[in-house]
Amino acid sequence: MCGIVASVSTRNIVPILVQGLQRLEYRGYDSCGVAVYADGLKRARSTSRVAELQEQVSSEKLEGGTGIAHTRWATHGAPAVHNAHPHFSHGPGDAAQKPGKVALVHNGIIENHEELRAALQAKGYVFDSQTDTEVIVHLVDSLYDGDLFEALKAAVAQLHGAYAIAAFCKDEPHRVVGARPVPH
Ligand code: GLU
Questions:
Q1: How far apart are CA 138 and CA 117, in angstroms?
Q2: Beta bridge mates, 36
Q3: What CA–CA distance (Å, rounded) separates 169 from 100?
Q4: From CA 104, how far away is CA 23, in angstroms rounded?
Q5: Which atom of ligand 1 is found nearest the CA of 84?
Q6: pLDDT tens digits along 59-99
Q7: Cα 172 to middle of ligand 1, angstroms
Q8: Whole-structure pTM value
Q9: Which of 13, 79, 107, 158 is deepest in the core (most CB within 10 A)?
Q10: Helix 148-156 / helix 133-143 crossing angle, nearest 10 deg
Q11: Could you give the CA distance from residue 14 to residue 170 in angstroms, rounded to a whole number?
């Protein structure tokens, strides 16, 4: 089992997010990452230990008050930096490496990721990873109309599988939203 940490604050939250990941290390992971809002979406990701991520965020001076962090246990796509979370959405027509609107982390498996990927690609979404997770971030982006919580609710209604999700959006920078299935 991997882990998710998320927070919104008036101060720099990166040290707290990284400390949270350190506390989750005992669960095991193959890669890790952190994203914050800092005049747009910024992130650092590593296939090494959380200690290495810590060095990266310090040397790159990654700072922000709104952020999400993740330790990954790969199920879809190799344990590589481009598959590590957080994932960013790209609006249709955006260059593949240009960060978009939504940053998202996910634990679990999306069983219908292939159908969703095909539908999003048909709308012009560009995929950077082989993960099932990346379909969620583009789906949320495609459903976004000014309210991230509503977009995530509409997105999870289309997901089959297991998920815990945290996300933020550069258009609502003081908000983090989360989702998990409600037991029937
Ligand atoms: N299925 C996702 C992936 O392979 C999430 C795995 C996890 O729970 O860490 O990236």
A1: 9
A2: 42, 67
A3: 9
A4: 20
A5: 10
A6: 999 999 999 999 999 999 999 999 999 999 987 766 555 56
A7: 26
A8: 0.95
A9: 13
A10: 130
A11: 17
